[in-house]
Fold these 4 entries.
Entry 1:
Amino acid sequence: MERVEPSIMENVARVINNELMGNQGVTDFAHSIGLEKRDAVNNWLLGKSDIRLNSLIKISQVYNISVDYLLGLSDHSSPNVSIQGAQEITGLSREAIDALHRHKVNSDNMDSFTHSESFNFLNAINDLLCSDEGEKIIDSLVKLRLALVAVSELLRNYQDNPGQNSPVLEYPNLRSWEVDTKSCILEAQEALSGYIQDYMKAREKLRALHLLKEEALDKGEGEENGEHSRAQR
């Protein structure tokens, strides 16, 4: 029988080792996919034997991972084609899409409790992505993240080579990054302040309506008690 391409088995071994086994040993992993002994898994990891189709399918089912990803034929680990499509369109990771889905489920449950779609998490995300304020916040966060990665890389290089000059002196762009970063923070604060002000205004209106309702109830109870007293006389 013709052997599977070495690169394919290398990918299978990499995924099993780095992503699936976790803290469990080879024996426990073998048991999790219905194998009595660890020999087969050891041989896969060492490249001594090819993995059979039934074992690939079992790993896919137990660990919720696509066979194509195991074989290195796809960059998307989820076996769910809808999630794969979302990853392809958005560029988001499987973990990010899973997180969005969890929030959607929680929002749906909240909607059934509050009977109001205004509490829906996805409505908030849509508003954030489609509003000018939201775009400023996201743009600021992206710039801040890029600045953090760059500065962290410089710091790591400096720590690995303590004899060299200050990274600020060797990397003149760092000062301009600091200016850009401060600008990003101010833009994000300004954008967030709009949301905060809208919230405070809505909160004050709600409080005023609540007070009016309480006053109306107190007035009604007072009139009812007065009529009751007159009736007793």
Entry 2:
Amino acid sequence: MKKSLKQLLLHVLDYAGLFPPAKLPLGQTVSNYLEYMESEDNWMIGKLVIPIGKLDELEPYHLRFDEFDNPIELSILLRGGNDEKSFYENLEEDLILLEQKISDANFSFPIAEVKIPHSFYETKNANEFVGEVKNIFKDQNVISNLFLENHFVQDWQAALENLVQELSKIHGIGMKIRTGGTEAQQIPSIEDVATFIRKCKDSDILFKATAGLHHPFRNYSEELGTYMHGFLNVIFASIAHVDNIEAILKEESIEAFVFEEERIGWNDAFIDLQQIEKGRKETFHSFGSCSFMEPKEDLVNLGLWENE
């Protein structure tokens, strides 16, 4: 694999085998993740995605975790809430619980993810919302990054605009975009994904993605009867200095991109190793996927990953 592509995909995939469409049992999910972490492919694997309600169910695997030199890194899905009040209460309780659980086994919780309450999109009071979240977040020392999941509801653009402006003033809280689903109507349009990326980039907000990014490039799903987004499209569009993000997200072929040892390009836009490293640290964090083998096999079939 080219050095540039390996840098782009370094620890980029947070394994979410518990979730659709895979919906694997917890035991199989943990077993798969640990197998990937012990393989030569572990450079692409990021965190293991676990709902906070299943932390106690990991107890049978604690001895297995102890076999690793470094703690097993978990991305914790927090409960959230239907309105701001329940959201704040649950966030505070969840973070307290994580502080209590951190010493249970050889694992860590470097990141957490939580859905923004729907009521926020009605009030759009980002100053109050971010202020409350910040106050709760700063009182804990377990989570390094908290990602707030956006909802593509009516007038979401204005709500996001207010939100990222406030988030730009603080450190450690970023955004999350859902790029797919198990039904066609759950897949956001190119325009919506581009708008999300653009607003985060303009405000220097770190974000992650989840769902639907099983293939490197935009592709048509016969099962869903619609197009799905590609993870290389999304990552490149997030990092490259380009205005036409929509055009990058539309690309369906490897022929549209150039993969060189020390840079990746699209048209006349290139990102080199330094820009890729900076972009992954400051703009695009990772993406959640219920499959690791599917993305890998696609990269192998495209000749981008030498299958040893």
Entry 3:
Amino acid sequence: MKRANRTPVCASRTPPRLSIHNPKKGHNTNYLNVSKESAAFWRVSINNPPLNLVDSRFIIDMHELMDAAEADPDLQVIVFESANPEYFLAHWDLTDDMSLMADQTGRSAGVRFPFHFMNMVVRLSKLPVLTITSLRGRARGAGSEFILATDMTFASRERTLIGQFEMSAMAPPGGGAPSRLARLIGRNRALEVLIGAEDFTGPQAELYGYVNRAIPDDELDAFVTAFANRVARFDRTSLIQLKQWVNEITLPEDRELQPQGDAFAEALSRPAFRSWVTEAFALGLQQPGELEENLAARVPLSRQPRSIT
């Protein structure tokens, strides 16, 4: 498998961990810049340049964030945004071999999934605070699945592209998208998103119910901040109860998710996927440029339908 022209996270020197549970206003992990807007409201900016790829270090940072959130008696709402206006979370980092995750098996309650990303998004969906995505830029594959695990999403009308591109890369989504999308937008539309593997703009995503609202880009930050500040003034116990009641009705059962992760892992070893990876990296996958900008439109790259004989 040809790798991108950057050092895989798992091979680099592990950066020092910074305590995220800090009473001061600002503090960072490796990829998450956390600002406490108030005791009840945290803003988290994702910053993993150049594309905000999802990798092992991001998962570890998210678990540290969730450890701190669960331990904070005042926290009510977390807003996730991107430091890169072109990429919210591009997709899974195919150069990551997950070796950093060796000591992370005990980080989430309940079912333990072999696919560590699944553990993280399941825990995120059940976090006892309200989680809001302020979506600006591209969010494909694992990026979309991260967003689906948050409680609500407000998207830039002009600068959003979101989708599950995996099928055009010869693999099914493996982070829970089939279960979450079917509940969120309905069976027919979920199948269109998952099997069609195309990008959805902000207005298209709003129409389908993929996001809560598409908001003009120059109004997005102010809207999300005002909404989060409003929620932060409500009763915390009631907020947690409401989220728990809705979760019981709408979240997928853990047993649904394991086969999806298994199918994704199995697809990664198939010749069709390995061929796609080789070609995609040769064309600039995981590097800034035209391929990543238009990934859903460019795949399945050179693969052509079989002719009738």
Entry 4:
Amino acid sequence: MGMEDSTFSTHQSGMIPSGIEGLDNYLEGGIAEGTTVLLMAEPGAGSSLFVQQFAYGGIENNEYVLFFDSEQRPEMINSNMARFGMNIYPHIGKNINIIDVHKYREQGREDELYNKYLRDTDINPILGEMLSEITENESEKKCRTIVYSLSYFIRLAGMDPVVEAIESLSKRGDINKSVNFLHITKGMHGTTVENTLKQVCDTVIELQVEERSFNVQRTIFIRKLYGSIAPDNFLPYYIGKEGIKLDTTKRIL
């Protein structure tokens, strides 16, 4: 997969590539190490692909990726990523571990999910014992912890344990310079929930969709940027054969 703009040598120290071609230029060089990023996406914006490209960016950057997905089964993720030129099969169990949260929804075992992952543990109250799977990797490789989607956990357990979990993840990331990437469906939970999540996360990226007469305009808006002032313009993007890319031919002010 072509990711030249996201892996080029001008990445500043302490920054990691986003995996989205062209985006790192607007993120002051990439995603800051040790931070927690919130991706707020409207339906139809391509958020699952955005998250998958972020995961693949970690693999290409020799990081360890822990991917919790409540929306798709691992085989569907593998197939979809391969369709856009991201072959993760050689990396499964080495550089990436996909945790199948979706199976609990599919099999109607949500009580079991709650008992296993939402109870208090020594590590973290929402992801629980799953995070222990990356402990031995942290000394050797940086880790990207991806949760797709927080919306499911909010519906299942409410906001308090979710916020507590984000704070725990953020503390761990700050210590070992790992990045947490969390997704939520925009407009699903109300203004109070969205504002709370914006507050507890370091960087906030929004994916927006505008329906026009004959097409759909997709844009990225960087609402909050760790350690810097976020750009005040909307960044158009398109979805092609190699995934999401910024449309550098135009800019919406």
